[in-house]
Structure prediction request, 337 residues.
Amino acid sequence: MRGSYYPFYLGTKRVEILSLLKNFIFFAGGLSLLILGADLLIQGCVKLSYAFLITPLFVGVILVALGTSLPEAGVSIIAQIKNYKEIALGNVIGSCIANIGLVLGICALLKPSKANRKLFKNELPVMILAIIIFYLLSQDLILTRWEGLIFLLLLVIFLFFSYKGAKVTSVELNELKEFKFRRVFEQINSKFMIILLSIFSLGLVIWGANLMIKSGVFLAKTFGISNWIISITVFAIGTSLPELATSLAASFKKIGSISMGNIIGSNIFNILFILGVVSLIRPIKISPSMLKFEFPILLLFSLFLFRSRYTGYKITRWQGLILVIGYIIFIILLIVR
Prediction:
């Protein structure tokens, strides 16, 4: 039967029940593909890093962070191609805030873990510097293609210096052995096969992102929600689930360098890589309200992480509680303002 046989009215809008149900299913299916694809890709990255004897901090900040940032990349890039500019930008900013306030907060509440001190001396300042540069370049309310190239150049420089310090120690090697692989990766030692599985996983991520974009925009319009609100909440939280799953797993395995490194690395990739690529596709228009609200919130969350230098490079449960409460307040203010 056609969905038009079952209409109802939402305010003054005529809504077809079957169309609504179909898009809810597509949204959930797309999110599932994103999570599955990102999870498989992370497994492959860690497996390869073990084979090449790369430090867990490098694994967390670069390899795992890149894998868990793919959902955000998929959503933002496809949104920009389809000219949904608010979703492309809102997803990146929202994910960065969710990664710290929600993901890192929950990880600290459930299982606080100590991270490598290098993370707070090197990668955390890089993340904050990337946020400040983004803020300064956004003052003219547009991120141009040339500015996108600057982001990508900064990312290359960051990757170069990160790789130079990526040699694993014996202690870190034991940490890496604690990572729990899925059965398929436990049984495969061929680097070629792992790369093939990683490429397949990337395909799942892109497919899932496309489903989320189409269904998400439909649902936003149906319920009268702006693209900006749904991108910075639903999309941002949904695409941050791989970070949450990975960081929690690393925390319970006491691999703090991967747990926290994943979050900080993901935010670096979100800003330098995703916004760099998205602005190359089409210059990004910046909302003045974002400079006054979302940017200060993101910077405040990021600076709060420096407190961990005074708690043995560990985010305590109290700090985790503050982060989660802060994120909830942010969402409430975002909706009511």
User: Anything to note?
Assistant: The chain is about 75% helix and 5% strand. Strands lie at 7-10, 13-16, 142-143, 284-285.
